[in-house]
Prior knowledge:
The protein is of the alpha+beta class. Helix content is 56%, strand content 9%. Strands 1, 2, 3, 4, 5 and 6 form a 6-stranded antiparallel sheet that branches. The longest helix is centred in the middle third of the chain and has 67 residues, at 152-218.
Amino acid sequence: MKLRWGWLPIAAALAGCAAGPDYRKPDVELPAAWRIDAGDAYWHAAAPAHAPLTLDWWRGFGDTQLDSLEVSALAGNQTLQAASAHFDAARANLAEVASAQAPTLGLQADMAREKISGERPRINYAVPTYSTVQNDIVLRASVGYEVDLFGRIRREVQAANASAQAAADDLANARLVITADVAATYVALRVVDAQSDVLAQLIALQQQSLDYVRTRHDLGAVSGLDVLQQQTQLDATRTQAQLLLATRAQYEHALAALVGVPASSFSIASRVVPLTDTPPPAVSLALPSELLERRPDIASAERAMAAANARIGVARTAYFPSLMLNPGIGWEATRFTSMLSAPALLWSVGASAESMLFDGGKRRARVDFARAGYAEAQARYRQTVLDAMQQVQDGVTGLSVLDQAARQAQAAVDDARRLVDMAHERYAGGMAAFIDVISAQQQLQTSREQEVAIHGRQLATLVFLAKALGGGWNAAAPEPAQPLAANRSGVQSDRLGTE
């Protein structure tokens, strides 16, 4: 008996081991802090030190239309639905793989009435054979269980579990990407609205100038050249405004696809509030090391690496034998009335072991393939971290540069307004040609368009930074952050100019 069951302690010890390397998360080199210009006092560290993931980060812009679009996109975007289905499939696959850790139980019932040949081959020639007709009723239960001696099943469960976690992170990342795309497209549309407003104001100003020049021409004070010059400028500005309608329609159609509705049945009303009157939200930053805990794409890459590591163990278990236990019990009789009697009882206890002796290098190739897959996953993880560092630093640096540019652009608009007023006064007094008025109007248009473009880039960079940070930023801060508004100096710039 000792010899028969002496292998059980060895099997139990082996069951506690698993082939392949245990997973260890690799270290990545991270900067101690973001590179921020000393003059940018509005930047501050997030509080608490680890800023939580803000799922509805877009609400920091304070735009109800954007809030509504984001909610619609989360409900109707088909890319997000596909990511959700992929996550469900990964969870189902995990349940399937984990089921191998439990024994299987089978039940079989057979019933037949058969005739046995009297001329069948004999086993004992001293006993004659007869042709008989009889019933054969069999009821059998069987159990199957694979003893996970070398950890193949455990490694498969580890790989499936890591893949399911990666799918969950992919779903979170898809949500982040979709909401960022909606916000970025919406900002681009509002920038077009602001550009259209700038051109509408310029058209009104040029129309006033045209009326004034026509009046003077009717009085014989100026030649028809001045009238033609101003009419040409007005026509060119109207053409530019018309072309903006096509650009706006494209952004509108893109938003329709993001929220999951046909473009033909989707529209967003133009906004008359100047874009520069909407200050961007304040920003607080977490430490670079905390970005690893915030970004879902980094988390997904790390889980993919863990799954690839577990697959190395799965591949290596092919070098070891597999052991199956398959006991069974049942009853076999010719009549139902005697099915549960002692003579009808049948049972079996057994095990089967299988091992490959030669496969032409197939197992070694699978192990090499798994190791290469892990090396690839590790490289992708490190690159994802580097990309995240770059994106956040780009956002931080970009906002700093745009903040300074916004103040300069606002000063340029104020100067251009004064230039228009001065050009009109000098032209009315006969001290300047009308081409000076046209030049001043063009300068004002350029300055206003530049101001709108910079403010739009500020908002777009904030969306980009929110995405780079893994879903916004922590709103709580130890002290109020100054907004990155283009009109920080307090100078309002509602209209293009005066007559």
